[in-house]
Automatic annotation (TrEMBL):
The keyword Cytoplasm applies. It catalyses: 2-formamido-N(1)-(5-O-phospho-beta-D-ribosyl)acetamidine + ATP = 5-amino-1-(5-phospho-beta-D-ribosyl)imidazole + ADP + phosphate + H(+). Residues 170-329 form the PurM-like C-terminal domain. Belongs to the AIR synthase family. Residues 53-158 form the PurM-like N-terminal domain. This is Phosphoribosylformylglycinamidine cyclo-ligase. Gene3D superfamilies: PurM-like C-terminal domain, PurM-like, N-terminal domain. It is found in: Cytoplasm. One of its GO terms (molecular function) is phosphoribosylformylglycinamidine cyclo-ligase activity.
């Protein structure tokens, strides 16, 4: 008689992974969560809003996971998964309220799955949202043994009158860049082609460890800024770099002028250029050291930068807005 385990799916290991995850997940629960892990669906109550608009986003970690496999380190990429989603919905002024994750593998190892979800819970804590559900799929023959994929889905909420859609952007507005922690979760197919020895030293650390630095989550400092300032547009610098992402904040025909000499390029990108990356294409592939961009009124520039620094963020003026096509120009 053939059992499910004989086909490659270990139900008992799945039960074990859920038990290992439960205590971590509980740490993310915030007011509004109505049920616990294990229900058929997650439930969240919207209580304090007058005219709420739900804002959603979904993403994964991409081939950065290959670095985690080779380094046998799984507790950070879950942070990346949350970050990629919550930073996107943040661009419209939304406060993340809950998150769901999807984990797939060839052969489930409970401890590894728990490490991945541990990262997800840490990301949710950093973003101030609850992990209210998810799915773990064991698919032998589809994924190779030892390989995992992880993706997520975030939901946030914003009062309709407070949605940030770029409609208030004007010529002369200032662009403020907030520093990234490295490549975040983008461009890793190119990175893996260039970096073949993960144990090689890079500024005192193994370069594999540096490449697993989690994506920075910008939610809490930005929500704090929104309490005191008008932010006219925001861009999360992900795949496509500056050229694709900054124009996404525009509702009308404007050009983002980026002052290249103002940029403090993260050392890892300089290293990639030394390894052979095409410097001319770096700004449409990587964040180059700027993970999030704000468009603000000129008169608010200094106060916003000051407050961001007080909140622990490295921020500075990187450019300005002028009339033109929806594009980015580096000068």
């Amino acid at each position: 008689m053939v059992t499910y385990k004989d086909s490659g799916v270990n139900i008992e290991e799945g039960y074990k992974s859920v038990e290992l995850m439960k205590e971590q997940v509980k740490k993310t629960f915030i007011p509004g969560v109505l049920n616990t892990l294990g229900s058929f669906a997650g439930m969240f109550e919207l209580g304090k809003y007058r005219n709420p608009v739900l804002v959603s986003g979904t993403d994964g970690v991409g081939t950065k996971l290959q670095i985690a496999f080779k380094a046998n380190k799984y507790d950070t990429v879950g942070i990346d998964c949350v970050a990629m989603c919550v930073n996107d919905i943040l661009c419209h002024g939304a406060e993340p309220i809950f998150f769901l994750d999807y984990l797939a593998c060839g052969k489930l190892e409970a401890e590894t799955a728990a490490d991945l979800v541990k990262g997800v819970t840490e990301g949710c804590i950093q973003a101030g949202c609850a992990l209210i559900g998810g799915e773990t799929a064991e698919m032998p023959g589809f994924y190779s043994e030892g390989e995992y994929d992880i993706a997520g889905f975030a939901v946030g909420v914003v009062e309709k009158e407070d949605i940030i859609d770029g409609s208030k952007i004007e010529e002369g507005d200032v662009l403020i860049g907030i520093a990234s922690s490295g490549p975040h979760s983008n461009g890793y197919s190119l990175i893996r082609k260039l970096v073949t020895d993960l144990d090689k030293d890079f500024n005192g650390s193994k370069i594999g460890e540096v490449l697993l630095t989690p994506t920075k989550i910008y939610v809490k400092p930005i929500l704090k800024l929104l309490e005191n300032f008008e932010i006219r547009g925001m861009a999360h610098i992900t795949g496509g770099g500056f050229y694709e992402n900054i124009p996404r904040m525009f509702k009308n025909q404007y050009t983002a002028v980026i002052m290249r000499e103002s940029l403090e390029i993260h050392p890892i990108f300089k290293h990639l250029i030394e390894l052979g990356a095409d410097e001319g294409h770096m700004f449409n592939t990587f964040n180059m050291g700027i993970g999030f961009v704000l468009c603000v009124k000129q008169q608010d520039e200094e106060e916003i930068i000051k407050e961001l620094k007080e909140l622990g963020e490295k921020a500075y003026k990187i450019g300005y807005i002028k009339k033109g096509k929806k594009e980015v120009v580096l000068v």
